[in-house]
Specification:
single chain, mainly alpha, 84% helix
Length: 125
């Protein structure tokens, strides 16, 4: 459980960061050529996932090294929230683009972040 708590958030964000960047780049390229482009839910979720994935590794390490610090609950909630948002973002992207092999890897990464946030919040060892 300790390994999942620490490495789940770190490895999950290492996978989520480049994939959400690629998705945002795809949305940007698509909106350049589409005159009627609007901000979609998938775009907003991908942007939130990208921003949140930057925060997951330092917050996870902080909670792992010092689990009784004053920010441990808020940091755990942020990690859990990023896991939830990345999972929902993946569902929206699967609905838009269809299911493929990359989606499986990203789903596992999102679930790793989700599990890490849950374990940090419940303080399970």
């Amino acid at each position: 459980m300790k390994a999942l708590k620490l490495y789940g958030g770190i490895f999950g964000s290492v996978i989520i960061l480049p994939t959400s960047t690629i998705v945002l780049f795809g949305f940007a390229m698509g909106s350049m050529f589409n005159q009627n482009a609007s901000i979609s839910t998938g775009l907003v979720l991908s942007a939130l996932t990208l921003l949140g994935a930057f925060a997951v590794p330092p917050l996870t390490v902080l909670n792992y090294l010092n689990p009784n610090n004053s920010q441990s609950v808020s940091a755990s909630i942020i990690v859990l929230g990023v896991g939830i948002i990345s999972t929902v973002s993946l569902v929206f992207n699967i609905i838009d683009t269809g299911f493929n092999k990359v989606s499986i890897v990203v789903l596992i990464a999102a679930l790793l972040i989700l599990a890490s946030g849950y374990l940090q919040l419940t303080k399970k060892e």
